[in-house]
Write a structure and sequence with these properties.
By secondary structure, the protein is α/β, with parallel strands linked by helices. It is 25% helix and 31% strand. InterPro entries: Ig-like_fold, Peptidyl-Arg-deiminase_porph, PKD/Chitinase_dom, PKD_dom, PKD_dom_sf.
Length: 463
């Protein structure tokens, strides 16, 4: 038998090492190798440009785009910009390649809608009310700086999945694992058939504000993506929001739903719809110069009618003390049916007092404005206050979320106050089960159950 020399052994060893390294890298390159993309807008007028962004996963080193009806119609740029010059509805296809001659392709049918310049206004548009049938609820799981919300999130999850689907966005696998642990600790099942987990980047746990606004337009459910800038810097200029601002696009891509960009900074938490013809909002929020410099009430009213199809815009004004969102409407006025709105009322047992000229004035002015618009107003008394981690605040239960057969409201760990609020909510929503969940950490930070969640209307709603 021929004896191996040192030289032949070295060559053989290097060969097998190279083969092993190549195999490992090849497997890595193909791990989670998926094609995906988004567009900054999906409805444009003739002559407008659309910027496409590759959001594929896994290693890739070559891109091939096909743009039906677009100029150019083909591109090998990673993130191309395309002009559409002819009215119509067009497909978009992206094929991505990795270094091992493997590829993945994604096509979104009828992704881009092009209308005539100066025209193409929808013939009908409506925002479903929160109490209408829902497809799902979405939320963004708290990250590193918001871990104190996690126990309340887990309890919300365990309630929601009893009634309907729930989509949970997470930033990384560590956060997902921590979320699963929290759900288990609260007596739930992170593998519940109603839960879908999404690796979608986000910056905060308040998806009401940065998430989609769903509208039914000309018989089709669509997403509106209003600009988000972390509440006009109200919580500090170091609060990041770049990923939050992209969430509606990612949700639209997952749902294969058109996304329309609206170049106005605004949060869904400042929009209250009756599902028919009316929206209530706070001018102090949308008119904040840190959000929309130079914006006017007249323009805001016109935008509400254009984008939401409402004929009545009820605009209140004023900010509760300490509210860094500058007056989100979901803490001041809430529809419970097409014609009835609940507004809080200060009492002698609350921190805010009748006639104090502060929070009481905000509430009383809101109630008067809403009543003057022809709506019925019910007052929800603020019957006490609580202290949490050195901060004392009113136990105000307006920040509820309505789902398929249930209501979740903020709890203040005070059985007397919580039970009284539960009874009132049961009278507002007699066909739903009411759940009070203690979330003092969230309330101290400025919100509650409604702020943390984003409801998706049923796909069966087509008008």
């Amino acid at each position: 038998m021929k004896q191996k020399t040192k030289s032949s052994w070295y060559t053989s060893t290097c060969f097998y090492f190279l083969l092993l390294t190549t195999t490992i890298f090849s497997n890595f390159a193909n791990a989670a190798f998926r094609a995906n993309f988004t567009a900054d807008k999906t409805t444009v007028e003739v002559g407008e440009k659309v910027k496409f962004t590759d959001t594929s996963t896994g290693y890739r080193d070559w891109w091939e785009w096909e743009f039906q009806g677009g100029t150019p119609s083909y591109s090998e740029r990673r993130n191309p910009t395309v002009t559409y010059n002819t009215p119509g509805t067009y497909d978009v296809t992206l094929t991505v390649w990795n270094g091992y001659r493997r590829y993945r392709t994604k096509t979104i049918r009828n992704y881009i809608t092009v209308t005539e310049a100066g025209g193409g206004e929808p013939t009908s548009i409506r925002v479903p009310a929160e109490w209408e049938p829902q497809e799902a609820i979405w939320l963004q799981w708290p990250g590193r700086w918001e871990k104190v919300y996690e126990p309340a999130f887990a309890k919300m999850v365990n309630v929601i999945v009893q009634y309907q689907r729930l989509h949970i966005l997470y930033n990384n696998n560590t956060i997902r694992n921590e979320a699963r642990t929290a759900i288990l600790a609260a007596g739930g099942d992170p593998n519940h058939y109603n839960i879908t987990w999404h690796s979608i980047g986000n910056d905060n746990a308040w998806m009401r504000d940065n998430g989609p606004v769903y509208v039914v337009q000309d018989g089709e459910m669509r997403i509106q993506n209003w600009e988000f800038d972390a509440w006009g810097g109200g919580f500090g200029n170091n609060v990041t929001y770049t990923k939050d601002n992209q969430v509606p696009i990612a949700v639209g891509a997952y749902l294969n739903m058109p996304v329309d960009k609206v170049d106005v900074v605004h949060e869904r938490g400042n929009l209250e719809f009756n599902g028919k013809d009316t929206v209530i909002l706070n001018w102090s929020t949308i008119g904040d110069p840190n959000r929309n410099p130079g914006y006017t009430k007249a323009k805001a009213i016109a935008d509400m009618k254009k984008h939401f199809g409402v004929s009545k815009v009820v605009m209140i004004e004023g900010v509760h003390e300490g509210d860094l969102t500058k007056g989100h409407i979901d803490g001041i006025a809430r529809f419970i049916n097409e014609n009835t709105v609940v507004v809080p009322q200060c009492t002698q047992n609350s921190i805010c007092k009748p006639g104090d000229g502060k929070d009481d004035k905000v509430n009383e002015d809101a109630a008067a404005t809403i009543a003057a618009a022809g709506l019925n107003v019910i007052r929800m008394p603020v019957e006490g206050s609580v202290t949490f981690e050195g901060t004392t605040f009113d136990a105000e239960y307006m920040n509820w979320i309505v789902g398929n057969g249930f209501v979740i409201a903020v709890g203040f760990d005070n059985p007397t106050l919580d039970n009284a609020a539960k009874a009132r909510l049961e009278s507002y929503f007699p066909d739903r089960e009411v759940h009070i969940i203690e979330m003092l950490a969230s309330w101290k930070a400025g919100g509650g159950a409604h702020c943390h969640t984003n409801d998706q209307p049923s796909s069966l709603i087509t008008q």
